[in-house]
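Collaboration report, partner site 2.

Our partner group contributed sequences for two proteins of shared interest, and the home lab folded both. The records are reproduced in the order in which they were received, starting with the first partner submission.
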Amino acid sequence: MDQASDRAPERAYDPPHGTALGQRLAAPAGVPADRSGFVLLDSGEDAWAARLALVRTAQQSIDAQYYIWNEDETGRLLAAEMLGAAERGVRIRVLLDDFNVGAKASALAALDSHPQISVRLYNPAAPTARRGVPWALGLVADHERLNRRMHNKSLTVDGAATVLGGRNIGDEYFDRHPTFVFRDLEVLGVGSVAAEVADAFDLYWNSAWAYPVGAALRSAPSADELRQVFDGLRSLATARDQKSDAELAALATAIHWAPHRLVYDQPLSSEVTSAPETPQAVAVALAARSAQARREILIESAYLVIGEEGRQLIGSLTAGGVQMNALTNSLASNDVLPNHAAYARVRKNMLLSGLQIHELRPDAAACGELIANDGCRAGRLLSVHSKAAVIDRETLFVGSFNLNQRSIYLNTEIGLLIDSPVLAGQVAEGIIALLRPENSWALELDRQGRLRWLAADGVVVSHDPQTSAWRRAKVWLLSLLPAVEYF
């Protein structure tokens, strides 16, 4: 597709101190100017309630940037709430990575027809390759470009508040999926950080690789299709209620003010290459802060594929006495087999570098404390989707960045480094709880260098626990693929 370079740039509104959010979430007197306010959103229920409160209170603008927006219950409900905001006069901008849009493009184009709503797709496939075989063939033919994805996740409202972290929009991220749920982490940020995220959004929104959704379709939605989309969403919308007011009041009292650094990768340049050569900005910033660790680093990463350069840093740190523990998915809890194949290929080397690895049990005992809506009932699997790190219980990193090769070199990512012993300590306690034997398997190498998994009851397992031979065989076959570490 031709680059969309002839548009006039659009900008976020200035932070509107006169809006309800600007007033209710403003810093109290005495807070230093270099500090922003943060609230941890470590449960899907809290993350969903915060989004509803922000969107229902919006008076001026909503900017949403996501890798995935599912067409399920939560996806439709949030779209309905945004439509309601648009019909109050709020400007809505939605930027989605095209990779997971597929057939949803028509519904998105219908929303884009609303005068207050604009939808753009990042790095889209050709209009003739929206799904199925044409999409797969297009991916192969234009692999260098289409292999570069926007993985950023943020929701910024009225320039006053932003939600940033690991969650996409879908039932599994908010404790509502029927078969599996994600353990995830985000922060609500207020103050100057919201303006910084808005600037980052503008950079992507005005990128030559962000196309109006209509450009990804061969034909515009019909009048009947438009009516069906809008009528369906309006039927889901609920009246603004006191729950949102109460949620905002609760968030305001929970805000912790701290220094921070927002880091984000640059969108695609005009010359695209898939060759991974240089780590991007988020990876560089996290590595630089980690290199300053004196005592401990705790990691929680859905996908954990650390390359040679990263393993050298781990070796240097652990040789100097820094304890490093990582929680990631087991084969039984991982939702993406190619990612697990990449991890399985390097996990011995990560252990040898000094990293202590723990793999989440899908039946973790802590599930009931992490997941709402009876999320841990029989038949549901728990999976890690968080992307977080705690350094010396002083600095918290949270964002969209997985500690794997795709996030380091290929995807664009966004993240926050927050200098707060209070927030860092809270996240550290959560990670440490999940490292316990009833929640995860500890990995170690025996005297012959073979992997083994340690269970809570003292049993030692010699292969990925709670998995079938066929599932393990599929992972082994995938691990033979070239460049699997970049999946």
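Second partner submission, folded after the first:
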Amino acid sequence: MTLSHQLGSYKRNYGMVRLVKELENEQKGVNETHELPRLIAFYLPQYHPTAENDGWWGRGFTEWRNVVRARPLFAGHYQPHIPADLGFYDLRLPEVREAQAGLARQYGIHGFCYYHYWFNGRRLLDRPFQEVLRSGRPNFPFCLCWANENWTRRWDGLDEQILISQEYSESDDLAHIHALLPSMTDSRYIKVSGKPVLLVYKTSLLPNPSRTADVWRRAAQREGIDLYLVRVETFADGVDPTAIGFDASVEFAPDWANTGIPVMHGRVGRVLSKLGIVPKAYTNHAVYEYGTLVGNMMRKQIPCYKRFPGVMPSWDNSSRRARGAVIFRGAEPTLYEAWVSAAIERARQRFRGDERLVFINAWNEWAEGNHLEPDLKNGRAYLESTCRAINAGPVPGKHEIAKSDGENFRLRQW
């Protein structure tokens, strides 16, 4: 073969290799663009008796006792929330945990984020998760969120009465992370870029969050583990997580800075309540419009730091409180579906690969009227809405909650 033929063959082959490479890169870009976010649901491990709850609230207490005592407080108020498919379960039963995971998987939920309660080496409500860890079942992804508030008599409306307090220290940070590391080596543990995801509910309560993050990271790295630390953002506080040694934040729903104005507030509400024109519930509690919250959350400004979107199907904790509850009226699967669709799209556009996360509050917060698990009123409607939002994928239009008729909202797509 002559040199010119060799060069021609080389050019053709090189051109083909380059073309194939370009096509592979293009396809990689398409796959990267359309890769769906992972939806992770917060999970409450309250539904089993413990010695502490027996002492504080009476023998046999679980969250179900709060759930069943709820009553409607005004026309159209949905209470009590009664579980359907899974019933009033006990989380000590492996069959229940398997059924939960199976249901979540069926409707596209990627994993659970278990609330983790640690008080200076003392763990509360830990049995369900420890059994999941020991047994290897269910085979369903999980991560942990440290609920680092003081344990109070909040359910009795006595927030100031502390039952167990948090006492932070560097030595406790070290003991804490060593206790958590075994769970992070589990193959089911949710990771970002190979790093186990660990959430902290209120970093604002830590006396020195940067120190805690540093202690955790150094201890984990000595075991060959790099952490992915996430702070939960319950208010739109604008705190850059990297400024306190964390990697990202997650938008907790409801964001209390974006609830809107209560339906009945101020002097007018109090007068109407005294006259019997409106139920006292509107002044005894804070009643908001779910549609207003959804609209405000969807219009929130995107921060310069990493913040994973968060959504919630509903919220009503009046089963826990005789006064001072927060109720979002008008929650319905169609509004939730628009919200979760927008959250999925936002995560898809802002992040790449396995950093595309959306958090749902919650899988089973029954006493907060906030659950994806089926109930007698809605059945599996919220799960079905979640599944439709996932399967719809990227769409050319955008969902918007349009304001009309004062504080009432309707769904519009444009």
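Feedback sent to the partner group on the second submission included the following. The domain at 37-413 is CATH 3.20.20.80 (TIM Barrel). The longest helix spans residues 3-34.
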